[in-house]
Protein backbone atom coordinates (compact mmCIF):
# COMPACT_ATOMS: atom_id res chain seq x y z
CA UNK A 1 0.00 0.00 0.00
CA UNK A 2 1.37 3.41 -0.95
CA UNK A 3 1.01 6.51 1.14
CA UNK A 4 -0.34 9.28 -1.08
CA UNK A 5 1.72 11.90 0.72
CA UNK A 6 4.99 10.19 -0.23
CA UNK A 7 4.18 8.88 -3.71
CA UNK A 8 2.06 11.81 -4.91
CA UNK A 9 -0.12 9.38 -6.85
CA UNK A 10 -3.89 9.33 -6.82
CA UNK A 11 -6.62 7.48 -8.67
CA UNK A 12 -7.65 9.12 -11.94
CA UNK A 13 -10.41 7.68 -14.14
CA UNK A 14 -10.74 7.94 -17.89
CA UNK A 15 -14.33 6.99 -18.76
CA UNK A 16 -15.96 6.20 -22.09
CA UNK A 17 -19.74 6.48 -22.20
CA UNK A 18 -22.22 5.22 -24.74
CA UNK A 19 -23.58 7.96 -26.98
CA UNK A 20 -27.11 6.94 -26.04
CA UNK A 21 -26.38 7.59 -22.36
CA UNK A 22 -24.87 11.00 -23.09
CA UNK A 23 -27.86 11.97 -25.22
CA UNK A 24 -30.28 10.94 -22.48
CA UNK A 25 -28.44 12.30 -19.42
CA UNK A 26 -25.87 14.79 -20.69
CA UNK A 27 -22.36 15.21 -19.30
CA UNK A 28 -23.17 17.90 -16.71
CA UNK A 29 -22.14 16.80 -13.23
CA UNK A 30 -21.45 13.26 -14.38
CA UNK A 31 -17.81 13.26 -13.23
CA UNK A 32 -18.88 14.24 -9.69
CA UNK A 33 -21.58 11.55 -9.71
CA UNK A 34 -19.03 8.93 -10.76
CA UNK A 35 -16.58 10.02 -8.04
CA UNK A 36 -19.31 9.76 -5.41
CA UNK A 37 -20.51 6.38 -6.70
CA UNK A 38 -17.00 4.89 -6.52
CA UNK A 39 -16.64 6.24 -2.99
CA UNK A 40 -19.89 4.59 -1.97
CA UNK A 41 -19.28 1.26 -3.71
CA UNK A 42 -15.58 0.72 -2.98
CA UNK A 43 -14.75 3.27 -0.31
CA UNK A 44 -13.38 6.80 0.02
CA UNK A 45 -9.78 5.66 -0.54
CA UNK A 46 -10.69 4.52 -4.07
CA UNK A 47 -12.55 7.71 -5.03
CA UNK A 48 -10.85 9.14 -8.13
CA UNK A 49 -9.18 12.53 -7.74
CA UNK A 50 -10.26 13.35 -11.28
CA UNK A 51 -12.69 11.80 -13.74
CA UNK A 52 -12.26 12.53 -17.45
CA UNK A 53 -15.01 11.56 -19.87
CA UNK A 54 -13.29 10.76 -23.15
CA UNK A 55 -14.43 9.44 -26.50
CA UNK A 56 -11.64 6.91 -26.89
CA UNK A 57 -8.64 5.46 -25.07
CA UNK A 58 -5.13 5.13 -26.49
CA UNK A 59 -4.84 1.59 -27.84
CA UNK A 60 -2.18 -0.31 -29.69
CA UNK A 61 -2.93 -1.83 -33.06
CA UNK A 62 -3.66 -5.11 -31.25
CA UNK A 63 -6.21 -3.39 -28.99
CA UNK A 64 -4.30 -3.11 -25.72
CA UNK A 65 -4.91 0.07 -23.71
CA UNK A 66 -1.71 2.10 -23.24
CA UNK A 67 -2.03 2.82 -19.51
CA UNK A 68 1.47 4.29 -19.43
CA UNK A 69 0.36 7.14 -21.67
CA UNK A 70 -2.72 7.81 -19.55
CA UNK A 71 -0.51 7.87 -16.44
CA UNK A 72 1.85 10.36 -18.12
CA UNK A 73 -1.03 12.69 -18.95
CA UNK A 74 -2.65 12.38 -15.52
CA UNK A 75 0.64 13.16 -13.75
CA UNK A 76 1.42 16.14 -15.98
CA UNK A 77 4.43 14.55 -17.67
CA UNK A 78 5.31 14.75 -21.33
CA UNK A 79 3.61 11.89 -23.18
CA UNK A 80 6.11 9.23 -24.17
CA UNK A 81 6.47 7.24 -27.37
CA UNK A 82 3.16 6.96 -29.25
CA UNK A 83 4.40 5.14 -32.35
CA UNK A 84 2.63 1.90 -31.41
CA UNK A 85 -0.80 3.53 -31.14
CA UNK A 86 -3.51 2.67 -33.64
CA UNK A 87 -4.61 6.34 -33.63
CA UNK A 88 -2.02 8.85 -32.43
CA UNK A 89 -4.52 11.74 -32.51
CA UNK A 90 -6.39 10.32 -29.51
CA UNK A 91 -3.58 11.37 -27.16
CA UNK A 92 -3.77 14.96 -28.37
CA UNK A 93 -7.49 15.05 -27.59
CA UNK A 94 -7.04 13.48 -24.13
CA UNK A 95 -4.07 15.74 -23.28
CA UNK A 96 -6.04 18.85 -24.22
CA UNK A 97 -8.96 17.71 -22.08
CA UNK A 98 -6.79 17.04 -19.02
CA UNK A 99 -5.13 20.46 -19.18
Automatic annotation (TrEMBL):
InterPro entries: AMP-bd_C (IPR025110), AMP-bd_C_sf (IPR045851)
AMP-binding enzyme C-terminal domain: residues covered: 7-64
Any one GO BP annotation for this protein: acetyl-CoA biosynthetic process
Superkingdom per UniProt: Bacteria
GO molecular function: acetate-CoA ligase activity
Pfam families (alphabetical): AMP-binding_C
Gene3D superfamilies on file: 3.30.300.30
GO cellular component labels: cytosol
PANTHER family reported for this sequence: ACETYL-COENZYME A SYNTHETASE (PTHR24095), ACETYL-COENZYME A SYNTHETASE 1 (PTHR24095:SF14)
Name the UniProt record assigns to this protein: AMP-binding enzyme C-terminal domain-containing protein
Organism of this sequence: Microbacterium barkeri
